[in-house]
Amino acid sequence: MGIWKIYFITAAFSYFLGSLPFSFWLAKAVSGKDITKIGTGNIGAMNVRRATDSWTWFSTAMVLDGVKGFLSVI
Length: 74
Description:
4 helices; mainly alpha; single chain
């Protein structure tokens, strides 16, 4: 397999992985709330904290987003 095919597959996988909204899904599953309507409206760990009132779910969202970024770089 050529090097450009490997680059393309890696870029496509990283783009797909980055598009997965783990924080949104986590908050929706735990609290049933739409985090885009709470706080700043961003889909991020801090709005998960606001929606669920739980540091545990905030930490889980941060770890999932961190792993997602780490895997994209690796």
